[in-house]
Design a protein that fits this description.
The protein folds into 2 domains: about 5-190 and about 340-390, FAD/NAD(P)-binding domain (3-Layer(bba) Sandwich), CATH 3.50.50; about 195-330, Translation factors (Elongation Factor Tu (Ef-tu), domain 3, Beta Barrel), CATH 2.40.30.10. It has helices at about 15-25, 40-45, 70-75, 80-90, 110-120, 175-180, 200-205, 235-245, 265-275, 280-285, 290-300, 310-320, 375-390; strands at about 5-10, 30-35, 50-55, 65, 95, 100-105, 125, 130-140, 140-145, 150-160, 185-190, 195, 210-220, 220-230, 235, 255, 325, 330, 340-345, 360-365, 370. The protein is elongated. A hairpin with a 3-residue loop joins strand 14 and strand 15 (about 235). It is built from 13 helices and 21 strands. It starts with a strand and ends with a helix. Strands 1, 2, 7, 8, 9, 10 and 20 form a 7-stranded mixed β-sheet that branches. By secondary structure, it is an alpha+beta fold. The protein binds dihydroflavine-adenine dinucleotide. Dihydroflavine-adenine dinucleotide (FDA) binds near residues 34, 41 and 337. InterPro entries: BaiN-like, BaiN-like_dom_sf, FAD/NAD-bd_sf, RsdA/BaiN/AoA(So)-like_dom, RsdA/BaiN/AoA(So)_Rossmann. This is Membrane protein. Keywords: FAD, Flavoprotein. Its cofactor is FAD. It comes from Marinobacter similis.
């Protein structure tokens, strides 16, 4: 008996819609189902409403995975330049914010509209408010019991993302499907997520809420030189989000608060030229006044320079260059931009994204154990893995 569809994709997010258009243009009869009432909710909320849709400098080195070579093939075959050409073809205005990070000039809606238009042109159908209750393998394909009836397909693509932001429709459904068909799922945790602090430090840093400063943060042999933001809940900003993907509970993070300054030399110089000034004044030369005041109170640095011995200056330099913080935890999936871990890529073909042991079953996007750094890499993975599966499903 012929299937209802050649390809059914579960998840109308970035990866699912990209896959649908690609398969549709090949002449495949495609249906995308999603339980949400709107497609691409994460696209809409991404990049502060202006979607950082790719990163021109994206390479496999920007991704974390237990199987780091897996992502290379798909990323090579569909590059940031390819997606940029699509964006340009749709006349979407964009701008490069930080190095390589491309954002919509107007709104994230432009990227979602691009994907929905491409699906329409490719003849792919998108059905929302449809939940999938059961999946069974049948002869030459799959049967889905959904809230809109039973559907059959030759190829089934799982594009239902990770666990981050459950209020936006995130579920562990993709992991359940993987397990059902004998694929391994690696432990998951929240990534690109703000840190929370232990009560005492949280209280001490509370006056700094809203202050941002450029830092170099280190943890587990990784480091990022980006701005850090103090919030009323803890530490955030690009530097903290980036390093959070490398942090494990109990780890210390080491923050260089003055990464562009030779701190010890400058402190000695300052003692010579302005002996009556305080450490606070030295810090104010580089960082916001509010930060300088609160940080000196935290460290109890209250002597004028003229009373600081060489050892004191060395100790101060050490703290400014290696401030050690042991976060209490992270804000978790509630606010995390991504989910680390997920479907083990060792069970998939890196060329087609299909399960090695299960013909016609594909996994793409964030549900896989491939997680990008902050800065447009995660969408680039969604596009590249979506295209790879769309060419073969
Ligand atoms: P995605 O999560 O986009 O889509 C999954 C879809 O599956 C959803 O529509 C969901 O409703 C559906 N679904 C889930 N379970 C289902 C079920 N059981 N049945 C049916 N449907 C189901 N990345 C980046 O590169 N640049 C950026 O600017 C940002 N900004 C950003 C901001 C915020 C606040 C967040 C949370 C995330 C980002 N990201 C980002 C990350 C990026 O959004 C993410 O990596 C991609 O959306 C992943 O695309 P997927 O298609 O894999 O999943």
């Amino acid at each position: 008996m012929a299937s209802d569809y050649d390809v059914i994709i579960i998840g109308a997010g970035a990866a699912g819609l990209m896959c649908a258009a690609t398969a549709g243009y090949r002449g495949r009869k495609v249906l995308v189902v999603d339980h949400a009432n709107k497609a691409g909710k994460k696209i809409l909320m991404s990049g502060g409403g202006r979607c950082n849709f790719t990163n021109l400098n994206s390479t496999p080195a920007n991704f974390l995975s237990d199987n780091p070579h897996f992502c290379i093939s798909a990323l090579k075959r569909y590059t940031p330049q390819d997606f940029l050409e699509l964006v340009d073809r749709h006349g979407i205005e964009h701008e490069e914010k930080a190095a390589g990070q491309l954002f919509c000039k107007d709104s994230s809606k432009d990227i979602l509209n691009l994907l929905l238009t491409e699906c329409e042109w490719a003849g792919a159908e998108v059905r929302l408010k449809t939940s999938v209750n059961k999946i069974s393998g049948v002869d030459h394909g799959y049967q889905l019991q959904t809230s809109s009836g039973t559907l059959t397909c030759e190829s089934l693509v799982i594009a239902c993302g990770g666990l981050s932001i459950p209020t936006m429709g995130a579920t562990g459904f993709g992991y359940d499907v993987a397990r059902q068909f004998g694929l391994s799922v690696l432990p998951t945790r929240a990534g690109l997520v703000p840190f929370t602090l232990h009560p005492e430090l949280k209280e001490q840093l509370a006056p700094l809420s809203g202050v941002s400063c450029p830092v170099d943060v280190h943890c587990n042999n990784e480091h990022f030189r980006e701005p850090m933001l103090f919030t009323h809940r803890g530490l955030s900003g690009p530097a903290m989000l980036q390093i959070s993907s490398f942090w494990h509970p109990g780890d210390l993070i080491r923050i260089n608060l003055l990464p562009s300054v030779s701190v010890c030399d400058r402190l000695h110089e300052h003692r010579k030229t302005k002996p009556q000034s305080h450490i606070r004044h030295f810090i104010e030369d580089f960082l916001p006044k509010r930060f300088a005041k609160a940080f000196c109170e935290l460290q109890q640095w209250n002597k004028p320079f003229q009373y600081c011995r060489n050892e004191d200056l060395e100790a101060i330099a050490d703290v400014l260059s290696h401030w050690e913080v042991r976060p209490a935890g992270t804000e978790g999936y509630k606010t995390a931009e991504v989910t680390l871990g997920g479907v083990d890529t060792r069970d998939l073909s890196s060329k087609t994204m299909s399960a090695s042991n299960q013909p016609g079953l594909f996994f793409i996007g964030e549900v896989l154990d491939v997680t990008g750094h902050l800065g447009g890499h995660n969408f680039q993975w969604a596009w590249a893995s979506g295209v790879a599966a769309g060419q073969h499903a």
